[in-house]
Amino acid sequence: ETGVTQTPRHLVMGMTNKKSLKCEQHLGHNAMYWYKQSAKKPLELMFVYSLEERVENNSVPSRFSPECPNSSHLFLHLHTLQPEDSALYLCASSPGWGSGNTIYFGEGSWLTVV
Amino acid sequence: GESVGLHLPTLSVQEGDNSIINCAYSNSASDYFIWYKQESGKGPQFIIDIRSNMDKRQGQRVTVLLNKTVKHLSLQIAATQPGDSAVYFCADQSSNTGNQFYFGTGTSLTVIP
């Protein structure tokens, strides 16, 4: 149990589908993140929210849309994805946003786009 | 831009031996570093961290060493066990790059019983 729970763990979707990934953290943290993990590549930061405000947006295609309704929940809405978007999507949280805040990850959502 | 790299993509060790996994970073202003362990099918798990005002930190069976002069970070695992088999990667953070963490690609550690 990592304290960061992601659902679904596995998702297969067509390129015209609309789906969402959900993340919930039980650690009382104020910052939440979405990362993308592809084979043989370093983790890529997609979005950061601190106290429900987006603080980072690393040039992510608009077919990925984040939503942070409160400091415990984070969503990643997916629409008209491409096969190259198939990857492990990791949610994470940290006590705060800023230097020295340790990031704790969930188990990830495996996404396959067909 | 920032880059973080591990020296070896794979490492095999005998059970009971010590393991050393190395990482190099490029940003001399990096001030916080973390090692993560990722087992197959799971998310990265925090192992140990170190701040730039330290050069060594020990945990349970793990030690992290930081050499800021050559921008090098290492993770030492004592008495390696089969359960230590996983991918290990380092991450560094600096306030001069917006507090983002930059991650290495990982070293896959295999423990031979």
Characterise this structure:
The complex is a heterodimer of chains A (114) and B (113). Helix content of chain A is 0%, strand content 56%. In chain A, strand 7 and strand 8 form a beta hairpin. Chain A is an all-beta fold. Chain A has strands at 4-7, 10-13, 18-25, 31-37, 44-50, 53-57, 64-70, 73-79, 87-94, 104-105, 109-113. In chain A, strands 2, 4, 5, 6, 9, 10 and 11 form a seven-stranded mixed beta sheet that branches. The model of chain B has no long low-confidence stretch (mean pLDDT 92). Chain B is globular and about 45 Å long. In chain B, the strands form two sheets. In chain B, strands 2, 4, 5, 9, 10 and 11 form a six-stranded mixed beta sheet that branches. In chain B, strands 1-3-8-7-6 form a five-stranded antiparallel beta sheet, with no helix packed on it. In chain B, 34% of the residues are buried. Chain B is an all-beta fold and 113 residues long. Chain B has strands spanning 4-6, 10-14, 19-25, 32-38, 45-51, 56-58, 62-67, 72-77, 86-93, 101-103, 107-112. Helix content of chain B is 0%, strand content 54%. Chain A binds chain B through residues 2, 4, 6, 40-43, 45, 56, 90, 97-108, and chain B through 4, 31-32, 34, 36, 42-46, 49, 51, 89, 91, 93-95, 98-105.
